[in-house]
């Protein structure tokens, strides 16, 4: 293939490590680079520092074959894949410092002829920014060969895998590859063809950056529509679940499901990158974010009302802390925020959280003296107000288990 035999993957997180492992098990020599010494040691022992089905098999196999190793330093390689975090800062613009640091590590290693791919979800023009950082440090190189300078090829290839299904979706999902130049896109396609069986679609870098952001914004806007309907329906005394089910019988209507808000580290973040790029024109995208961010506040108000109406001394049970059903991931979970806020606002009320996928409370909840992690049975036996925030399959028959409690069905399980 091309002239790529060695690949350096910068960032050994949820995306970088699976990508490094799958390239290595497909015959390339891969060095994974990370700033975390513990991650480096774990990978070099053939271990995976987080839970992802089937990943350990790939990592162990690749390390024992000598095809994958991890290092704190960026080595020289034929291709580089940058998969570092792009969080947003307090003003809701993207923090590109991790990309910048990766570029600074790569620049001194380059000789010309290398392929450099940015995989991190990025605001528009981040790939060009990465190229500029590299070329700023290496004015002897170029993107197009101008002045007879050796070239580097720079592309963006966003990941779209769903946590929990990464090793399957890496292989089966279609991929978008956006090159700063056409040649960069073509070379990146060739590299991904090593393991990707989906269609690989070529475009320019900014379109590829936007495609990823637009996919997640599309979902955010549609969830916001459902969440807005749930608040309006509550005011009108209409069952929003029945309403949506009926409306969805129309052949061209497909409304998503309301919930306690949008969690995870993608859908609640990525739309802000578009808003930041063009604040004046991103009206629907911004409003959708605001609607979804406001939903946990609305849920808290509903719980406070229910507690006020219940007998004195009523406790609250929270069903589910994760950001979506049947996983243990609590990152940016609206349920965690709701639970903490209720406990803070009602210091004399016991808040019993039920989360079958964890064995101890996250630090933000453990710090609150009136929150405890209990079983479903205990919560139902002791709490007068029951709030269902996550539709884990363990909770789907809750209707049959309820007695006299006030039940706030934020995911509509009773209407299924
Ligand atoms: N949610 C609702 N109602 C719905 C659907 C979802 O309230 O009808 C909520 C969920 O409860 C959750 C949040 O939205 O809190 C997000 O969950 P999700 O399953 O929609 O998405 P994620 O965040 O797990 O993964 C998304 C995926 N993107 C799309 O579906 C467009 C995934 O393919 C991406 O790879 C991932 O973001 C990412 O890394 O960007």
Map the helices and strands.
Elements: E1 6-10, H1 16-25, E2 29-33, H2 37-44, H3 55-64, E3 68-71, E4 79-82, H4 97-106, E5 115-118, H5 126-137, E6 153-156, H6 166-172, E7 175-179, H7 182-192, E8 200-204, H8 205-236, H9 240-247, H10 270-277, H11 283-309, E9 316-319, H12 334-345, E10 351-354, H13 363-366, E11 371-373, H14 376-382, E12 385-388, H15 398-401, E13 406-409
Parallel strand pairs: 1-2, 1-4, 2-3, 4-5, 5-6, 7-8, 9-10, 9-12, 10-11, 12-13
Antiparallel strand pairs: 6-7
Overview in brief:
41% of the residues lie in helices and 13% in strands. The chain is an alpha/beta fold. Ligand SAJ binds at residues 160-162, 215-216, 219, 223, 256-257, 259, 262-264, 266-267, 323-324.
Task: State mean pLDDT (0 to 100 scale).
Answer: 96
The figure for the number of domains is: 2
Briefly note the structural class of the backbone: alpha/beta
**Strand percent estimate:** 5-15%
Brief descriptors of the model:
single chain; 416 residues; alpha/beta; Rossmann fold; eight-stranded mixed beta sheet; five-stranded parallel beta sheet; 15 helices; 13 strands; 41% helix; elongated; binds ligand SAJ
């Amino acid at each position: 293939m091309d002239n790529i035999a060695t690949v350096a993957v910068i960032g050994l997180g949820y995306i970088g490590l699976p990508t490094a492992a799958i390239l290595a098990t497909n015959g390339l020599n891969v060095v994974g680079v990370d700033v975390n010494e513990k991650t480096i040691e774990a990978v070099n022992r053939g271990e995976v520092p987080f839970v992802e089905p089937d990943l350990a098999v790939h990592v162990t196999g690749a390390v024992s074959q000598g095809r994958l190793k991890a290092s704190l330093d960026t080595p020289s390689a034929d291709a580089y894949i940058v998969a570092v975090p792009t969080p947003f800062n307090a003003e809701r613009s993207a923090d590109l410092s991790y990309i910048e640091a990766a570029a600074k590590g790569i620049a001194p290693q380059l000789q010309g002829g290398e392929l450099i791919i940015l995989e991190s979800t990025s605001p528009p023009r981040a790939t060009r920014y990465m190229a500029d950082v590299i070329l700023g440090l290496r004015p002897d190189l170029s993107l197009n060969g101008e002045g007879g300078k050796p070239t580097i090829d720079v592309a963006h290839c966003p990941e779209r895998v769903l946590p929990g299904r990464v090793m399957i979706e890496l292989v089966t999902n279609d991929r978008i590859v956006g090159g700063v130049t056409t040649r960069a896109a073509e070379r990146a396609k060739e590299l991904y063809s090593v393991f990707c069986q989906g269609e690989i679609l070529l475009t320019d870098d900014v379109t590829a950056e936007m495609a990823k952001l637009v996919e997640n914004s599309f979902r955010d806007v549609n969830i916001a529509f459902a969440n807005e309907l749930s608040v309006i329906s509550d005011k009108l005394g209409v069952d929003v679940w029945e309403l949506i089910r009926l409306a969805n019988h129309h052949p061209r209507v497909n409304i998503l499901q309301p919930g306690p808000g949008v969690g995870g580290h993608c859908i609640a973040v990525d739309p802000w990158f578009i808003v930041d790029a063009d604040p004046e024109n991103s009206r629907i995208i911004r409003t959708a974010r605001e609607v979804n961010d406001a939903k946990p506040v609305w849920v808290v108000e509903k719980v406070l009302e229910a507690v006020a109406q219940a007998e004195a001394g009523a406790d609250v049970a929270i069903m589910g802390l994760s950001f979506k059903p049947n996983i243990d991931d609590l990152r940016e979970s609206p349920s965690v925020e709701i639970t903490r806020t209720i406990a803070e606002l009602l210091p004399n009320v016991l808040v019993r959280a039920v989360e079958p996928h964890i064995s101890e409370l996250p630090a933000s909840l453990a710090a609150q003296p009136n929150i405890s992690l209990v079983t479903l049975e205990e919560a139902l036996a002791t709490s007068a107000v029951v709030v269902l925030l996550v539709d884990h399959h363990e909770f789907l028959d809750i209707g049959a288990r309820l007695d006299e409690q006030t039940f706030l069905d934020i995911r509509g399980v009773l209407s299924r």
